[in-house]
Design goal:
CATH architecture of the largest domain: 3-Layer(aba) Sandwich
Order of helices and strands: EHEEHEEHHEHEEHEHEHEHEHEHHH
Structural class: alpha/beta
CATH superfamily of the largest domain: Glycogen Phosphorylase B
Radius of gyration: 21 Å
Number of strands: 13
Largest sheet: 7 strands, parallel
CATH topology of the largest domain: Rossmann fold
Strand order of the largest sheet: 3-2-1-4-5-6-7
Distance between the termini: 11 Å
Helix content: 25-40%
Shape: elongated
Oligomer: single chain
Length: 365
Amino acid sequence: MIIAVDGNEANVQNRVGVSVYTYNLLKYFQKKASGELSFRIYLRCQPLTDMPKENPYFKYEVVAGKFLWSQIFLPLALFSKKQLDVFFSPAHYLPRVCPVPTVVTIHDLSYLYFPEDFLKKDLYQLKNWTQSSISKATKVIAVSKTTKKDIEKAYGASQDKVIVVYNGYEKIHTSAEGKLRVNLSRNPYILYVGTLQPRKNVTFLIEAFSKIKSSYPDMKLVIAGKKGWLYEKIFEKVEDLGLDDEIYFTDFITDNQLIFLYKNAFCLVLPSLYEGFGIPILEAMSFRCPVVSSFTAALPEIGGDAALYFDPKNQADLIEKIRLIKENEKMRKDLVKKGLARIKEFSWESCGEKTLEIIKSAVKK
């Protein structure tokens, strides 16, 4: 069997979200490649040096073309290779036409719930190309039960067509130093991890933090994540509240730096209004960092009973959960213990294995 894969999401310098997902699947596929199962990874440009290495059964194919690559240039390349058996896209978009059965992963439908958070061009593409992909696909992978329900409701996909496969998580130290330029050793700090964009609800967290400071004046807030779209209001809110010296923005950071933050944080707060999965929950738990999460979309599904939850529109609720962890050491220890048990249910190995099974099942016998 020869499996074709769109590998572009993994072939980037700073991997977050879908890029991490695609990269870890490619690592798994490379490990499983054999005479009976080979992979052809399609890219717009040459693979970066840290991409999984080629072998006789795991090969990269670079297809030139920039504008509408997945809709014009990729289909032409696929039709020229007669021996392909199935095509897999790890991120929403399938080719306009394809000579073989297809499988696509849908990560979330946030653009349907928060259209104002997206540029018009991106919103049009997400709505229409995702709908087309779900319609054409032989099988659709959803990263959570929440996403599966959203797909079935929004696009009328049948229950047996959409299959849930949870993401894995992985943050491993390398030899590089993990510390940051700012010295956080003297103050407890609340940690936020994620892209800076409106649906992540970061301004809500900043406003709640300004009130937390009145009870715990030594507390700081660290916001770790790269700038997304419409992020300017986040920085304006910090300035308006006079919190420039109390909140640290890291921008994109290395895995080692993120691990350092998890290990030393008072807790992780994830205030999102919508998430299709929520990998930071699992990462924090793996480094014994208590998790306080909004009770919305897939987040309770991922965190289970190993996190505290709050209404993402109720600052008093979040403040109360922070107070509980601060004042109740037993609760804090229980959350850490439950978190370490919870993460055993998620791994990239399991994600890769189940994804590969679905891809194989899409091929007509």
